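Quick one - inputs below.
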Amino acid sequence: MSRTKNVLTLATAVGVVFGLAACAPAGTTQNAGGGEGEVECNVGIAMPTRSLERWINDGEGLSALLEEDGCTVDLQYADNETDQQISQIQNQVAGGAQILVVAAIDGETLGPVLEDAAGQGVTVIAYDRLINGTDAVDYYATFDNYQVGQLQGKFIEEQLDLAGGAGPFNLEPFAGSPDDNNAGFFFQGAWDVLQPYVESGQLVIPSNKLSATNDDWQSIGILGWGSDDAQAEMDNRLQSFYTGGQKVDVVLSPNDSLALGIEQSLLSAGYAPGADWPIITGQDADKANVQAILADQQSMTVWKDTRELGERVQTMIQQIVAGEDVEVNDEETYDNGVKVVPAYLLDPQVVTKDDVEPVLIESGFLEASDVGL
Ligand code: BGC
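Output:
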C-alpha cells in the first residue's frame, strides 16, 4: 500500500549484495538475465488474503525489509479472489513495478497477466506458492512443501508408534485448497508416510474419504483453506460415520486454518481435551493454533518462519536489481508444466507444546502475550 520514491541504484545494490554474500548459505546461482545499468527497485507484492494471519505477517514483513533497502513497494491483498489479484498485478505493472512478488491464489490462472508483465521486462518471483503453466515466472522462494507434509506424517507415525506395529487407529485425512500448488506437496509428503499404514490396516478411515491407494487428494481438499468449511466437513464426517461410539484417533490437517475448524467441530461433538482428544496436525503457528496447542487441542504445528522467507526474497531482489546471479538451492523439484522454476527452499520445523516458549517466543516470532502466556 505504501509508496516511497526511492531508487536503489546498481552501485548501492551491489554493495548490499556483496555485504550479504559472506553470510549467505551455500547454493547455486541463476542469472537474473537482467539488463545493464541502473535498475529501479520498484516492487509489487501481491498477497492472497488478509483473512489468514500468516499472509499479513508475510506482506508487512517483506514490505518493511524492501523499504529499508530504499525500494518503492506496493503491497496488495486480494480477498482470495483471483480476478482481484489479476487486476492488482496489472495496476502494479502499470504503476511501474519492475519486480513482482506473487503469492498466487490460484496457481493456474496468472499466466496471461504475468506474460504481459514479462513482456515489459518485469521479473517475477513466485512467493510461497508456485505459479503454473507459464514461463513468466523467474524464481520461486518457499519452504520445502513436501517436507512440511513429511513432518506431519512422521509426527503421526511416531506418536502412534505405527512403525512398532500399533493400531488400528481411526484416521480422518484432510487436504488443502485444490487450486493451491502447495496443497498437493503437503498431502503427498504426509501420505508417503501414512499410506503404508492404511494399507496394513493400522490406520482405518471410517469416513472412507480416501483409500490407501487413492492419490486423488483433491477430492478431500478444502477450497480456499477456510476454517468454517473444514469445520462443516468434520461435522459431516462425525455425524455420518461415528455413530456407534467410535472415536477419531488422529486427524491429518495440512495447516492451522483447517485445524482450527476441525477442533471446533470436535468440541461441539463432545470431545474433550485429554484422553479422547485426537492427534491433530497443523502448519503456520498461527496465534489461535498456538493457543490450541497450549490448551491440548492441537498436537503440533509445522512452523515456517516467514521472516526468513522475507529475507530470502529481499536477497533475491537485491541480486536482481544488481544484475547479479540469483542464488537458488533447488533446480529440480518445481516443474510448473512449462519449465522447472529455480527455487530457494527453506526448512520448516515441528513445534509442539514444549517448543512454544523456547522456539516461537524466544525467537521473537510471537509475543508471550499473543498466546496468553
Ligand atoms: C501456505 C500455507 C498456508 C496455506 C493457506 C499455503 O499455500 O503455504 O502456509 O497455511 O496456503 O493460506
